[in-house]
Structure formats: C-alpha cells, structure tokens
Specification:
Two copies of one chain form a homodimer. The first copy, chain A, is α/β, with parallel strands linked by helices. Chain A contains nine helices and ten strands. The first copy, chain A, folds into two domains: 77 residues, Winged helix-like DNA-binding domain superfamily/Winged helix DNA-binding domain (Arc Repressor Mutant, subunit A, Orthogonal Bundle), CATH 1.10.10; 118 residues, Rossmann fold (3-Layer(aba) Sandwich). In chain A, helix 8 links the parallel strand 8 and strand 9. In chain A, helix 1 runs antiparallel to helix 4 and helix 2 packs across helix 3. In chain A, 42% of the residues are buried. The N terminus of chain A is likely disordered. Chains A and B meet through helix 1, helix 5, helix 6 and helix 9 of A and helix 1, helix 5, helix 6 and helix 9 of B.
Chain lengths: 219, 219
C-alpha cells in the first residue's frame, strides 16, 4: 500500500465510503475462495457497480492496482479495511431490548465483521435478562440503563445502537454522550442531535421505504 | 398545490427524496400539534437541515410556499406525500421470519405510515405460526414460501422485505420477481439483482456501521 493520505479524507463522498464497504465485502468473499488477483472490471461486476467507478473510488486513497494485472485481493482488502477503520474491533452497546434490539443482539453479519456487542441496556432489564448474543458466544446480560456510563467506560464502548421507542431516543443519545460513546447508530425513528465530536447515523426503515415507494410510483 | 410536473422527477437526487421523507415526518408531527403555517427556517430547524436546502428540495417539484408567509403545514404534507407516492397504502410481505423478520412484523413506525404488512413467509412456517403483527392488529399467519406467488396476487403485495440469511436472498428475490412484486427492501447482507422494472433497496446495517467507523476513525 502506498499513499493513503490522511489529508484527502475530508473530501471523500459518502457514496464512495458506502461502496468501499461493499468492495470489502466482495473482496472478503473472494479471499475466502482463495482468489489472489482481481481486475477492476471483475470487482465491479461482483459488486454490481461499473469498473470506472471502482477505479475512481479507489483513486481517492492513492495507487492500489498494478497496471495490466489488477489488484491483489488480500492487499486491497486490508487497505480498504484500514481506510474504513475496520482494522480494529469496534465495541458496541444496544440500548432498548425490544424486538429490534433483540434481533440485533443475534445479528449474524456483525459476527463476521469487527463489530462486537459487549453490552445491552434497557429501562426494564428483568423482563429481558438471558437473551443471547451469538456475537459474543454467550448470553449478554441486559443491564439497567442507569449503569450505562459506568459500563461504557469499563467495557470501552465506542458505538451505541439506539433501539428504543422514538420518544426516548434523544434522552438515550444524551446519556451516550455523557458516557463519551462517540458513535451512535440510531434505529429509533426520531432525529437526535449530539455535540461536535460525536457522530450519529440514522437507520430509519420507513425513510428507505419512502424512497422505494417514490421509485415505484415514478417508474 | 401547483406545478408538480412528472417530467422533472427523473432528475431528483436521492438525497432530496430522503429529505422529503424527513420533512413529511416533521410536518406530520406539526400537523398533529395543530400548527397551521411553517416557514422554511422553522421546518429546516425542526428537521435539522438548513433553510436553503429545504427551499431547494421543494423547488424541484414546483411552487409550494406563500411569499412572506411560509408553507401551509397540511397542504405541504399532502403534497410531499403525493410526490413520494404515500397517498396510497403499500401492501408488504416479510420473507424470512427469524429474529429480524419477527421484529419487522411488529415494527411500530410502519403502523404510523401507509405501510401494511399483509403476509409473512418462511421455509419452515410451523415453527413461527402465531407471531403477531401489530400492524394489522391480528396475528399474521406465517405461510410457506412456496405459496408466495399465489398469495402475492391474492393480497396485492407490492413490496417484499427480505430478511432471510444472505445465501437465500437472490433466490427469494427471484421468487418475488416471479410473483410480480415490484419493490424489494433487502435486509439480507448480499447483493441481489432484479430485471428492469423492479426495484431493490438495501438495508445493510454493517455497511452503515462501516460508514460510522470511517467517520469515527477520521475525526
């Protein structure tokens, strides 16, 4: 790997970052199959994008390919993981252990990546104690939300997944900020705000459905 | 409402459509509180975007505001719903009734919008019969996947939510296409392809986490 410059990072479009994530998924699969080298056309084909897009996305981060050969699968995979910050384990907590929170505790795709759920919180923990996270391979005890700050420090939690009712989302986000959990993935359909230095990404199923409904209505 | 022209639709950025969905959510809330008029600044503030963005997004679809007054809350809400194709009910099926599929069957945010789950399918229905969708107010019987085509026609299903393991996603997508279900929301972390005239939107939690991890690593 050469020339992965920090400077350029600020200008990277979010769509590029999303595609990098997709490329890493495809490369992971190729790597698992023992494939050593891939051309941008092959990678593009596998990831359902076009080859020019692959080259353009990777060009943001420096020179990766070997002219006339393509990319070394494992090298490119490791480079992309480094760019995305996935060359480390991310320690996460789920807050709100209803149906969706429980589903996330056993979400198999986290298992394959470097995302580890290390704690679960609820306002009413007894009703949910004993739910199992396959991610950690043993039951995650659901703790009372009032232990968030203490446990976040203890278990070095970096990302909080909010799966509470929407009315509680901002309150939980405040508690995560208080506990210095820098990243939030917000599944509760309510906008939450955090101070500078903290990050929220929303996962609103209904917003994505609205997008689909729009496309279906206009095609 | 004036000047909502069909012609313009093709050029609308996806980010605009996502924000329209957000505006409709905010307007719905304002409407519920009995608010009659809103300025672009107030709407922007409520939706956590900037006022120029609100005006620009709405300008794609014609003239909505009254100069010096702002927007009539309910009129704008109805116009946005019409633009997004939400002035009708969307009938959906969930395919794959594991943890996530079950969570979606009782996902309260669908309930508030025009998304109705009218069927649930699995390859192993007996284990899951009797799960309840609060959306429809009564238990949704989980049917065997081999009844998809027949039931899709009968119940006029327009959107399929894929919540199977990734290895089954393309197969299920094919069956949805076979059943002429035009829209797919794919939660299974695997790329699926569909013919022209069909639409897939992915909801890959890990991809969104990758995006968050990138931002946390580079800030």
């Amino acid at each position: 790997m050469k020339g992965v410059t920090k400077l350029k990072y600020t200008k990277i479009p979010e769509a590029t970052i999303r595609r990098l994530s997709r490329y890493s998924r495809c490369l992971e699969e190729m790597n698992g199959l023992g494939e050593k080298v891939v051309s941008s056309a092959q990678l593009a084909n596998k990831c359902l994008v076009n080859a020019a897009q692959v080259r353009k996305d990777l060009a943001y981060f420096g020179e990766f390919g070997i002219r006339g050969v393509g990319y070394y699968v494992n090298d490119l995979l490791q480079d992309i993981k480094r760019i995305l910050g996935l060359n480390k384990e991310w320690r996460m907590a789920v807050i709100g252990i209803g149906n969706l929170g429980s589903a996330l505790l056993s979400y198999k795709d986290f298992l394959k990546q470097n995302y580890k759920i290390v704690a679960a919180f609820d306002i009413d923990p007894p009703k949910v104690i004993g739910r199992v996270s396959e991610k950690v391979g043993k039951p995650v005890e659901v703790l009372h939300i009032n232990r968030l700050k203490e446990v976040a420090k203890e278990r070095r939690i970096e990302i909080g997944l909010i799966t509470t009712p929407p009315s509680e989302a901002q309150n939980v986000a405040n508690q995560l900020v208080e506990a210095e959990v820098k990243g939030i993935l917000n599944f509760a359909p309510a906008q939450v705000t955090v101070p500078d230095g903290y990050m929220v990404k929303d996962v609103f199923f209904t917003t994505i459905l609205d997008n689909l409904a729009y496309l279906l209505s206009n095609n």
